[in-house]
Design goal:
This protein has 354 residues and is α/β, with parallel strands linked by helices. The protein is built from 13 helices and twelve strands. The chain binds nicotinamide-adenine-dinucleotide. The site of nicotinamide-adenine-dinucleotide (NAD) has 26 residues, from helix 4 and helix 5.
């Protein structure tokens, strides 16, 4: 076995915790990539991995992405991520979340958790019974926080509009064709916002019943998950899992823009340049999908500092996402460097890793 730190996904992470509590059924990895700007913040993923090494890769890549995301969103937080290795039937128990809460508490505030794929608000409420370092908890109407999905969706919707304006030169998404891979908490929200503006939608989800139901509700076409990446469209919006933009995936695309919420869309670093070579405008994932972390971080900071937190403040910060993307695309064109590289360089400078 190679040394852990020679793994291509290891990026001088500050610390990686392997957590095992057999009695309470918890196996988890908590990776803290950077605390340069503040406590490492990032959600918890609950997933069944065929191989434990895949869980480690997820934790490493996702935590680095959180450092970049929080820095680019202007938040006073570093980057971290937890993955809980679910068993095959993805069984959740109160004991499991108690053990996870204890592990987070044990880090003494260096890591602040929230929801990610497979984790609900109710799960975070359970974790919160054991630790102070949780965000994404239920909040009163009009306050920042709660389920991050709708805020993430809002940022992506605004980012898609900015991309359409930048690449296609049109102000509105009316009649613009968006192909959506994954219509869960985030993708479903984006689809609804786009549908309101009259976008033409094609949807796909491995939960085919869900895809059919939303397709019917929004008057959208539905295709199989295998077909969605090759749908001829203006915008391909990935909102399921990461690493879909590899050589094969990029070759299949028939779109002008890739803009969606999935984390770590590029399978490898060089894939960003491949998109650019094909003339496809890419919205770096951690810039466009920051709406949820903006909301839950503001919720956390408000609770920690005992300050009221207005949802409009969250919306104001999310409204800056399109400008940030446009700046990246302009720099990318000026420097002849792909948007992902431009964004990475900006983020690395912000976290003191130039
Ligand atoms: P979710 O579990 O609610 O939705 C994911 C959806 O993708 C599900 O409906 C699932 O059936 C579908 N799916 C899975 N594999 C698929 C495939 N191969 N083809 C088509 N559909 C597939 O999760 P979510 O919260 O909507 O998150 C989606 C993505 O966005 C993830 O990559 C997540 O890390 C990222 N993200 C989420 C948030 C948030 O606020 N929830 C914030 C930032 C980034």
């Amino acid at each position: 076995m190679n040394a852990f730190w020679t793994d291509p996904d290891f990026d001088d992470h500050e610390v990686v915790h392997f957590v095992r509590d057999e009695a309470r059924g918890l196996t988890a990895i908590i990776a803290l990539h950077s605390t340069h700007l503040g406590p490492a913040a990032g959600g918890t993923r609950f997933w069944h991995y065929a191989q434990p090494v895949a869980a480690m890769r997820d934790a490493l890549r996702l935590s680095r992405g959180m450092s970049y995301k929080n820095a680019m969103a202007g938040l006073p937080m570093g980057g971290g991520k937890a993955v809980i290795l679910a068993d095959e039937d993805r069984r959740k128990t109160p004991d499991l979340f108690a053990a996870f809460g204890d592990a987070v508490q044990g880090l003494g505030g260096k890591y602040v958790t929230a929801e990610d794929v497979g984790i609900t608000v109710a799960d975070m409420v359970a974790v919160n019974q054991r630790t102070d370092y949780v965000s994404g908890l239920p909040v009163a109407e009009g306050e920042a926080g709660g389920n991050p999905g709708p805020f993430t969706a809002l940022g992506i919707y605004l980012g898609i509009k900015a991309a359409v304006q930048h690449k296609l030169g049109v102000e509105s998404v009316e009649g613009v064709h968006v192909a959506m891979q994954g219509i869960g908490s985030v993708g479903g929200g984006v689809a609804r916002l786009l549908a309101k503006d009259g976008a033409k939608l094609t949807l796909a989800d491995i939960s085919t019943d869900h895809a059919q139901a939303l397709g019917q509700e929004l008057g959208a076409d539905v295709v199989s998950p295998d077909a969605i990446m090759s749908v001829g469209c203006d915008v391909f919006s990935p909102n399921a899992l990461g690493a879909i933009l590899d050589e094969e995936g990029i070759a299949r695309l028939d779109c002008k823009i890739v803009a969606g919420g999935a984390n770590n869309q590029l399978a490898r670093e060089e894939n960003g340049a491949m998109l650019a070579d094909r003339g496809i405008l890419y919205a770096p994932d951690y810039v466009i999908n920051a709406g949820g972390i903006i909301s839950v971080t503001m919720e956390y900071l408000c609770r920690r500092d005992n300050a009221p937190c207005d949802i409009n403040e969250v919306r104001k910060r999310i409204a800056l996402i399109p400008d940030r993307l446009t700046q990246i695309w302009q720099d990318s064109e000026a420097k002849g460097s792909s948007p992902d590289r431009v964004a990475d360089a900006m983020a690395q400078a912000l976290i003191g890793r130039e």
